[in-house]
Amino acid sequence: MHRIYRQASTVWACLGCATNAEHSEAAIALLPHLGQVGRLLDQQPLPRWTTARQTPESMGLPSYSSLISGHIQRIVCNDWFRRAWAVQEFALAKDGTFLYGSHEIHTAVTEDAVVFRHRLEALRDTRGLKLPTGIVAGSRGTVRIRRLIANERLNSINANRSIPNHLLGTLVYMTESHEFSEPRDRILGILGFLEGYAATELAIRLSNDTSIVSSYT
Fold this sequence. Notes:
The chain is mainly α. It has helices at 2-7, 21-42, 46-52, 67-76, 84-92, 107-116, 137-157, 164-174, 183-191, 196-201, 212-216, and strands spanning 11-14, 96-100, 103-106. A three-stranded mixed β-sheet has the order 1-2-3.
């Protein structure tokens, strides 16, 4: 299947139903700004985080308890990002679009919001307490895998391929928190991210009949 995914120009991924059109539209509109705020906080040293007493509202974001923030949470911390097979088809395609209810969200709109959202833990409420930001490790990993694959594709075009075992090691690290149906799928799912030449250079020959022990050794 990974060969088909690599030939796809665009993949659509459904992130679920939007329960309120007004709030979901507002949440989607805020995604670029959320990414900008997260990137800004990422550039600040940790001491400034703890002394600035910045709040979501002071940074142009809704309070964490708001319904709009709930929709943002459902988009950028969606369980979809933790499913390795789904991530594979999305990362290997040349472009991607998320569907949230009746709304389309281009991947470029979500990437910075997903990657930098964990930096919003620097924002405090009016009592100076940290605001919960949800589990975003799987989401960040998905975006980084997509960027890694895009870079690998570019290097391949320029005949400047990366070392396959380094790429494989990076993918193993990035997918350690992703979900698979069975142990064998963790191996086959990760190998699907590699170009055919990479598996050949690494002398990897696996099939659906390969035992679990052989797959991991």
